[in-house]
Specification:
- The complex is a heterodimer.
- By secondary structure, chain A is α+β, with helices and mostly antiparallel strands.
- Helix content of chain A is about 30%, strand content about 30%.
- Chain A has 19 helices and 38 strands.
- In chain A, the strands form eleven sheets. An eight-stranded mixed β-sheet of chain A has the order 3-8-1-17-14-15-16-27, sandwiched between helices.
- In chain A, helix 11 crosses helix 12, helix 15 packs across helix 16 and helix 17 packs across helix 18.
- The longest helix of chain A has 29 residues.
- By secondary structure, chain B is an alpha+beta fold.
- Chain B folds into three domains: about 45 residues, 2-Layer Sandwich (Uridine Diphospho-n-acetylenolpyruvylglucosamine Reductase, domain 2), CATH 3.30.43; about 110 residues, Uridine Diphospho-n-acetylenolpyruvylglucosamine Reductase, domain 3, CATH 3.30.465; about 120 residues, Enolase-like, domain 1, CATH 3.30.390.50.
- Chain B is built from twelve helices and 14 strands.
- In chain B, strand 6 and strand 7 form a beta hairpin.
- The longest helix of chain B is centred in the last third of the chain and has 35 residues.
- Chain B is globular, with a radius of gyration of 20 Å.
- Chain B starts with a strand and ends with a helix.
- Classes of the chains: A alpha+beta, B alpha+beta.
- The interface between A and B is medium-sized, with 25 and 21 residues.
- The structure holds flavin-adenine dinucleotide (FAD).
- Flavin-adenine dinucleotide (FAD) binds next to strand 2, helix 2, helix 6, helix 7 and strand 10 of chain B.
Chain lengths: ~775, ~300
């Protein structure tokens, strides 16, 4: 496998190992105030330290007048370094550039900042309420691109965007419903915890900027930097070697503008590599709270859903303006609901910015609606699998966006997962203090649409092949997967195919490596590029074979006249003998779509990810501790390109899912993160994983659509575990994570309530006797 | 704040001299697992680091006159696996084997875990239940103190800054004793304990309790033993009701901490549960040893 040897022998290139002659080191001074005016930044003592080259503040950068101070993918709201005001604890206020990291660190500790504290707000519901402190008294400007995002911002209420989906007549739906349930569910902020923290080396020259970055969005970062420095796109070069994990946290520029600005100030390359503690406050998963009302008929059919979700965006918008779209349609779930009104708001607070995170907005939705569906099933006396079968979307059904859906395999996926987990056998089972039970869940998720990928495939005269792509390799295995797919298309040995890392000077445009889109979009673009190569080879071979190009075909890497395989020429030889140097093929894949932000109608996704999960858990009733024993997942893959890689992606999702379900939560106290280290913030260890798991990947090769697998397996995991815990204990938690203490409290409340009922019953008896 | 000087002394005396010379501003390094984190998080900023790496004679495990001697540099992995520890101090072997993860256990040392005195630790409770004694060498020579006097509070010991823990002496458990160490984690399995309980039980053939020792770790500032409660259980059968009474006494008298691993309420609940479970487990183990011995006698 391409990559494997390099990974095992430590030769995979990462930014953190990248060195440039004359490179200086940066250390940031970060805000200790949650919301404050910056009155003074005292840098003299730091600047006088040995080894220190410069101490730079936001005011210093502004005074130069040669760069824009604000950046952001949708809104230009993030200062490179704070200017006048800070909006969260951890926000970069000043930067020390020094000859070595230790000198930078020592000096950074000597910078003093005077703050004049302002009223701050941390909870998104509070920030949304009238009269809350405002993060932006004036609305920030838009970045001119990202035109597909329509803004319904309301900065009077700290809202950076709102998205609404309306279908049918929700009032009539509730009026007709025979049971209405109304709950609030919550998901906390979390960290993506990539093994490699954000890293960048920037080298700014007067007319040119080169940035080595651990970004998932090289081309968006290039555009942002070009805008910031007023440079043409081709004067900004973004080079991205392998990433030590991204998971969304590296999706949009964070450290790149800082390093680039500093490099411009000092006239030398500047390296910035965040500590683990900084990583935790650099990009987070949105905390979300949703009020979810669902109306059902006695037979289990869902007839109405109304939901209002508030995503806590943190202090800056980043990609929240788009996230609310996923959040609004995501709340519908994979069910045929005739009457829907779901709305999602992204609300700014004085906490670290929330960005992309594996499962983009959908995890939080699924946690809510899948718990609630089990609650409804119980109230109706229906089996959880049965109520899902009744409501799951089927071929030809319309989704809440008005799209007619095809190739739906939800029921089959669910039935299979239920069977593999042993659904229907005795449940729950108690032995001593320990009780076991199972739970299921189903989720629908879209991919970013519209979107664009381009690629080039180059056939060399020795038959070797280069794939030039700007998809970022972040451990998900996109390089080996693309190598395999191109090799198959050309009929050559995969060993002959090399896949580039990203260099915007050399590798063609790709929108971004997020949203599980690369195998579909970049796979499509590289496939087209390979077809282009084959077309050109046929032309060239026709001359060599003295045949009509229309009669020339390529099979197993040889060009030959159709029907006469023996006379074929290996495609590399075609290149060599026709003296063209190399054959360069191009491919582009552009998807169309988009939703109206007021009604949610249109095309939400080029295709829809279908995913289910079934978990068996064990709960210690004396301690509340939950152990996930087994997990059976199922995902519609369309076509599996790399079977091992596909399983690895699902397993990675399982680690995230178990972490989200049982362990992970960023805890803030007045805006101060209190568990921002790996000693305090828990990610799952091997022993926390279920002893057994399996993922079924359902294919439909005739349809010919490849679905990305980076995320879809994730969102069903936490609700499946939550539902299993409920069946084991009767405790339904409305907030993640499912900690032992919360479960034990729930058990005690149930016991006390049962006792109260008994006492009431006893008293009643007394009255009557 | 500049980078600390680093020393690799070759004898305990040399190490003590260095510590003394730096007058409280030097830090010893054993396994480095705790110290590295403290340095990284800037909880300490020593002027010098004094490594014990090259000091011979601190890494041995032996038994003398019914006392197991654990050198200060014995790692958790070595302690957990050593035949002498497993035979004579099984409760300690278990506690060392449950610390963190394999990487931490391979580096962390017996002296380090005691000197650090982090309340959220496993081995100290087991060593307290075993009546271990700590040996330390300072400028004034060697002194020896019961572990109950050594550990005095949150991250606090009676060790002077220029003293070095050289050894821990642990009386071997009698072969008829049963013991257990149970660790409760409330987050990842690799987390430090929310509560850990070490229990030692020795009973007569008729079930009368002859010895009970219970040490609760990670629940309060230092491992908790209630000798009056232990003594109260001796002389009568350790039946389920008696075990529950012991658990209740510990739960009532512990002054639990609240931290990321659990509130004070939860900790108290867990003390009750895990004291009960640990004493039960130790009782079962004692029954097995007694049975084994009876079988041995028959053969
Ligand atoms: C990821 C992780 C997980 C952990 N999980 C657990 C757990 O589950 N349970 C648990 O009990 N512990 C746990 N620990 C704590 C671990 O056991 C301690 O860090 C370790 O025991 C310290 O030993 P050390 O040899 O590494 O000490 P060092 O880090 O070298 O030193 C610790 C302190 O003791 C001093 N010191 C060291 N040796 C001596 C000596 N001989 N004389 C005097 N002073 C000395 C040092 O100066 C320093 O102040 C965990 C630690 C980590 C990093």
């Amino acid at each position: 496998m391409l990559d494997a040897r390099d990974r095992v022998t430590g030769r995979t290139p990462f930014v953190i190992n990248h060195e440039v002659p004359g490179m200086l080191h940066c250390r940031l001074v970060r805000s200790t105030a949650a919301h404050a005016a910056v009155r003074a930044v005292r840098t003299a003592e730091a600047a006088a330290q040995r080894g220190v080259v410069a101490v730079v503040t936001g005011a210093d950068l502004t005074a130069r007048g040669d760069m824009a101070m604000l950046f952001g993918p949708v809104l230009l709201d993030q200062p490179v370094l704070a200017v006048d005001v800070v909006r969260y604890i951890g926000e970069p206020v000043a930067a020390v550039v020094a000859e070595d990291p230790a000198a930078a660190e020592r000096a950074a500790a000597l910078v003093e900042v005077d703050y004049e504290h302002k009223a701050a707000v941390f909870d998104a519901d509070e920030a949304f309420a009238p009269g809350a402190p405002l993060l932006f008294p004036e609305a920030p400007e838009r970045d001119p691109s990202f035109a597909d995002v329509t803004l319904r911002a309301d900065h009077e209420r700290n809202v950076c965007n709102t998205f609404t989906v309306v279908r049918g007549d929700v009032e009539a739906g509730f009026a007709a419903a025979e049971l209405v349930v109304d709950d609030v569910y919550e998901s906390p902020a979390a960290g993506a915890v990539p093994l490699e923290t954000h890293a960048v080396v920037a080298d700014a020259r007067p007319d040119r900027l080169t940035v080595w970055s651990s970004t998932q969005t090289p081309y968006i970062t290039r555009r942002q930097l070009a805008l910031m420095f007023g440079l043409p796109l081709n004067r900004v070069r973004v080079i991205v070697p392998a990433l030590g994990g991204g998971f969304g946290a590296k999706a949009y520029a964070t450290v790149e503008p800082i390093a680039a600005a500093l490099s411009r100030v000092v006239g030398a390359p500047v390296r910035l590599h965040l500590t683990r503690e900084e990583e935790f406050v650099t990009m987070t998963k949105h905390a979300m709270r949703v009020r979810l009302r669902t109306g059902v008929m006695r037979d289990g059919r869902i007839v109405a859903r109304e939901a209002t979700a508030i995503y806590n965006a943190g202090a800056y918008a980043v990609i929240s303006p788009r996230k609310v779209m996923f959040g609004a349609y995501g709340l519908n779930g994979p069910y045929a609901i005739p009457n829907v009104r779901t709305e999602a708001h992204a609300v700014l607070t004085n906490t670290p910015p929330a960005g992309a995170y594996r499962g983009f907005a959908i995890n939080q939705c699924a946690w809510a609606y899948e718990n609630q569906l089990d609650e409804i099933a119980e109230r109706l006396g229906l089996d959880p699998v049965e109520i899902r079968r009744i409501n799951l979307l089927r071929d030809g059904d319309e989704f809440c966006t008005g799209e007619k859906l095809h190739h739906l395999r939800f029921t089959e996926l669910l039935d299979s997962a239920a069977e593999r987990i042993g659904w229907g056998t005795e449940d729950p089972v108690q032995v001593g203090d320990v009780v076991r039970a199972k739970g299921v869940s189903c989720v629908i998720e879209g991919t970013i649409t519209p979107s664009t990928s381009t690629a080039a495939v180059r056939l060399n005269p020795d038959g070797s092949v280069d794939v030039l792509t700007s998809s970022v390799e972040m451990g998900q295995g996109i390089r080996p997967a693309l190598a395999g797919a191109v090799a198959r298309r050309l009929g050559v040995d995969p060993e002959l195919v090399q896949v580039s890392y990203v260099d915007t000077d050399l590798t063609p445009y790709d929108q971004q490596t997020t949203a599980s889109r690369s195998m579909y979009s970049m796979g499509g673009a590289t496939g087209r590029a390979a077809d282009d190569v084959l077309g050109q080879v046929r032309e060239l071979a026709a001359d060599l074979l003295e045949a009509d190009p229309a009669d020339v075909v390529v099979t197993n890497g040889r060009a030959h006249v159709a029907g006469i395989e023996g006379d074929g020429i290996p495609i590399g030889d075609v290149v060599a003998r026709s003296r063209v140097g190399n054959v360069l093929g191009e491919g582009t894949l552009v998807t169309e779509g988009g939703l109206d932000p007021f009604t949610g109608q249109g095309i939400g996704s080029v295709h829809w990810h279908q995913s289910v999960g079934a978990a068996e858990v064990e709960v210690d009733l004396a301690t509340g501790r939950v152990t996930v024993l087994r997990y059976a997942g199922g995902v519609f893959a369309g076509e599996v390109i790399d079977p091992v890689g596909a399983q690895h992606q699902c397993e990675g999702c399982l680690v995230f899912g178990v972490g989200n379900a049982l362990l992970e939560e960023l805890v803030f106290d007045q805006g101060q993160l209190v568990n921002g280290s790996l000693a305090d913030y828990m990610v799952p260890a091997l022993e926390d994983m279920p002893a057994s798991h399996d993922f079924e990947l359902v294919e439909d090769r005739e349809q010919g659509d490849v679905h990305g697998l980076g995320e879809p397996a994730l969102p069903p995991i936490a609700p499946a575990i939550g539902n299993a815990v409920y069946r084991a204990t009767g405790v339904r938690l409305h907030s993640l994570p499912i900690s032992p203490e919360k479960v034990l409290r729930g058990l005690r409340e149930r016991r006390d309530a049962a006792r109260r009922d008994e006492t009431v019953a006893d008293e009643t008896v007394e009255v009557h006797s | 704040m500049s980078a600390p000087a680093v020393f690799f002394p070759r004898t305990v005396a040399e190490a003590v001299e260095l510590l003394d010379a730096y007058d409280g501003s030097a830090k010893l390094v054993a396994g480095g697992t705790a110290l590295t984190l403290m340095l990284q998080q800037r909880l300490v900023s020593p002027e010098a680091l004094v490594s014990l790496r090259d000091v011979p004679g601190l890494g041995g495990t032996s038994v003398e006159g019914g006392v197991v001697r654990l050198g200060a540099l014995v790692t958790h992995t070595q302690a957990a696996r050593h035949a002498l520890v497993r035979a004579h101090l099984p409760v300690a072997a278990t506690a060392f084997s449950l610390v963190g993860n394999a990487q931490v256990r391979a580096a962390a040392t017996v002296g380090g875990v005691l000197a650090e005195a982090d309340y959220a630790s496993d081995p100290p409770a087991a060593l307290l239940a075993l009546d271990a004694e700590v040996l330390a060498v300072g400028p004034g020579g060697e002194r020896r103190m019961p572990i109950a006097e050594f550990l005095v509070g949150f991250y606090q010991t009676t060790l002077a800054p220029e003293e070095i823990v050289t050894r821990v002496d642990v009386p071997a458990l009698p072969p008829t004793a049963g013991s257990a160490y149970l660790k409760h984690t409330s987050r990842s399995h690799e987390d430090r304990p929310c509560v850990g309980v070490a229990a030692v039980v020795r009973s007569d053939g008729d079930g009368t309790c002859r010895d009970l020792r219970v040490a609760v770790g990670a629940a309060c500032d230092r491992p908790l033993r209630l000798v009056d409660v232990e003594a109260g259980a001796v002389g009568s059968p350790l039946d389920d009701a008696a075990v529950e009474a012991v658990a209740t006494a510990y739960a009532e008298r512990v002054d639990p901490v609240a931290d990321v691993r659990g509130s004070a309420w939860y900790r108290r609940e867990m003390v009750q549960v895990w004291v009960r479970r640990a004493v039960h487990a130790a009782r079962r183990a004692a029954e097995h040893t007694t049975n084994d011995q009876r079988e041995g006698a028959v053969l």
